[in-house]
Amino acid sequence: MVSIRMQMVGCALAVIGWILVLAMYVTPMWRVTTVTVNGTTQSVWEGTFMRCLRKGGGDRSCRSYDFLVPLSPDFEGPSSVALAAVITCSAGLVIFSFTGRCAKLVFKERTMARFSVLSGVVILIAALLCFIPVCWTVDLIVRDDHAAPVGGTRKVELGACLYIGFVAVVALAAGGGLLCTSWPVNQNVWFWPISLHRTEGRETESHQLR
């Protein structure tokens, strides 16, 4: 019962993390650049798919990246790793689906235990893949902001997606860890039931001979 509850909690956290990683990847708020010119403030929101311009009056216009508005070189690496995190987390959830009730008709309990642990490991890898682009982008933004002149009209800030990414990392790490530890390691479930059974048989025979 405890292992089933841990599985359900781990799966719920993994799904929440997957949703947050996907939201982080598609939302254009990785980096927010604010420029003030002649008392007018404009904000540029940059993401992996599009760039949005918000004027002081509240009007906002977004445009997807193309050959006229290319993706910033700063985001080429982080966006690729973030996409890998989305794919890896999706794969982990698919693997976990093999531990459901319908899977009991096809797989043995020991095989389902392996699927549970494997899904946890894959989701932990997804957490690492999500952590890398978030820290990478934060480092780029901090260095860019420190390089800006003091008292200048340009200000670079962290976008909301980066905070979402940190929460996603925590959810994925917790969910993957619970899935890895949700099945007890014993002779009935894990990898060495035959050898343990033979060992017990030999001990019984030795006691009878004595």
From TrEMBL:
Pfam families: PMP22_Claudin (PF00822). Signal peptide: none annotated. GO terms for cellular component: bicellular tight junction; plasma membrane. Gene3D superfamilies: 1.20.140.150. Its main location: other. It is found in: Cell junction, Tight junction; Cell membrane. The chain crosses the membrane at residues 7-26, 81-103, 115-142, 162-185. It is a multi-pass membrane protein. Keywords: Cell junction, Cell membrane, Membrane, Tight junction, Transmembrane, Transmembrane helix. GO terms for molecular function: structural molecule activity. The keyword Transmembrane applies. Belongs to the claudin family. PANTHER family: CLAUDIN. This is Claudin-4. It comes from Oryzias melastigma (Marine medaka).
